[in-house]
């Protein structure tokens, strides 16, 4: 029982990180109808900015406190992502209003490749580390309930808590603020939102800025765990099945979809892997997403599309 619970907790923690990346896809799609294939590049670009600023700030400003240096690096990287969001809207999106979905999709692919190259130019292509002070050593919990206790990775636990807090803040932002309600209105109907005075271009800048902050937090956490390297762009590919499972337009769907896939990957690898030779964790999410595309393409919480003829 203890081993099952350890695997379950590990899956839930991994699922929260998947949900964090998936949120970037959902936020942009909800507000603009664009499936943002550059989200992985945004995660990498943000992580590179965070890692390099965390190196440069103590050297040039003489700051010895790790916490202060990381806070300043996070703020600086956040400003960089805001600038990236503004430039994307100004130079790309505003010229593609009312274009075909394929055109917008290709535009996001181009943005992704541009950010990959610009990241190397500005910040270098080496492997960098991000030290945000998260403890690496595991802990044993519930020792009075289970013999030997449950082994929990502290770093995964802290990362899941950070992701959960950000998800909660985003939910409050969408539900309780005027800007959040404007974003939801734009998501429902662009033309109707414009007719009542909601500026579409400003809303797109805001949502790309929010997606940039989400990418920064995701890049910071994954960079702390794995190191900042160009394989981080594949993190977005692991989040694609989450989006398909939860629904392209649902923030709660991104969260629940991430938890389902995180738990499913861990449990299937541990309990079914020995019977099929392992490797289930690599393809489990994609097979599950394929099943949903065949039988429920809108996902668990997505809006069902009804075509009237």
Provide structural commentary.
The protein is mostly helical. It has one domain (2-295). Helices cover 72% and strands 3% of the residues. It contains twelve helices and two strands. The protein has a two-stranded antiparallel sheet with strand order 1-2. The longest helix has 31 residues, at 2-32. The radius of gyration is 20 Å and the shape is globular.
Mean pLDDT: 81
Radius of gyration: 20 Å
- What structural category do the secondary elements indicate? mainly alpha
List the helices and strands in order.
HHHHEEHHHHHHHH
Fraction of residues in β-strands? under 5%
Number of strands: 2
Query: Sheet with the most strands?
Result: 2 strands, antiparallel
Separation of the first and last Cα atoms:
55 Å
What best-fitting shape do the alpha-carbon axes yield?
Answer: globular
Q: What's the helical proportion of residues? A: over 70%
Largest sheet, spatial ordering of strands: 1-2
Q: How many domains would you count in the coordinates?
A: 1
Number of helices: 12
Q: Which regions are unreliable across 5 or more consecutive residues at pLDDT < 50?
A: none
